[in-house]
């Protein structure tokens, strides 16, 4: 294991921000810490960076315990949400800062800086100051500065969240290709599930100071373990078995056998196909045009449901429909939210 967090706990007074959290990151891997505001993502990142001390637990880097090693000696590159460039230094001085304090000579620092500015596609701004750049450009520079020193791990704390939509997706693509090219082990904090799905090799989903599920983007989206993860990863139709019987009884065969915990069927909107049927159990209440797809809202004996189709449809509000769902597209999740049926 390249980076390994073992049973990290962090409390603030009587509040437990991290509760026995373990996670790992392999060589070359892009891992996203995903979860709602306040779940402990930033605390975990700061703890890995050495900016916060855990109450207990260990941070292992390449097999060595670095829990007591100060931040600057861990050799990590960090990019925060707000552009934390030095305002009185030029872009070249900002990017070259880490190299200079490590004793690099002026010429080789400048060569490396020029190369990095090429990589982030901003070759002509070496002599500009941060205040002259847009938010997206400043974040690119912050990224170049973090990469400059060949970090052991690149730590990104919501680096895209202050940017507007277009710049955000552009920079997301940029981060993705840079990370793949350099194979830099990267840990990114985000509360945006789409960002995590697009970037990560592995997503670690957190809630209330605990890791609730870790796995590939496909695992978390298509095979969530719990209702919390299913909801957090996107729109889902969550249906209790007694209600599922009323709209798609054939899916009940896949229900987990174990008793005790309540399980819900989880069906993503794009996994529901609709066909017009006057005797069908559901009725269309609205069709929303979303550009690349249409979202169809349904009223049914199983409660309100959502389906999504790409392309045109010949169905309209008021029509009755039958639902077709392939058994393999229905996953079963544990109802971890107080046992209330969907
Ligand atoms: P966000 O996306 O909002 O930043 P997060 O998942 O990153 O959320 P953290 O910043 O890790 O969450 O915070 C987790 C919890 O710990 C929050 O409830 C926060 O109020 C609390 N917390 C964090 N730092 C401190 C601190 N220095 N003192 C007291 N409480 C803190």
TrEMBL record:
UniProt cross-references to SMART domains, sorted A to Z: AAA
Native source species: Pontibaca methylaminivorans
Biological processes, Gene Ontology terms: quaternary ammonium group transport
Organism lineage: Bacteria, Pseudomonadati, Pseudomonadota, Alphaproteobacteria, Rhodobacterales
GO terms of molecular function: ATP binding; ATP hydrolysis activity; transmembrane transporter activity
Superkingdom of the source species: Bacteria
Keyword terms of this UniProt record: ATP-binding, Nucleotide-binding, Transport
Alphabetical list of PANTHER family matching this protein: SPERMIDINE/PUTRESCINE IMPORT ATP-BINDING PROTEIN POTA, SPERMIDINE_PUTRESCINE IMPORT ATP-BINDING PROTEIN POTA
PROSITE patterns: ABC_TRANSPORTER_1, ABC_TRANSPORTER_2
GO cellular component: ATP-binding cassette (ABC) transporter complex
Pfam families reported in the protein's UniProt record: ABC_tran, TOBE_2
Domain annotation ABC transporter: ranges: 3-233
Name listed for the protein in its UniProt record: Iron(III) transport system ATP-binding protein
Presence of the UniProt keyword Lipoprotein in the record: no
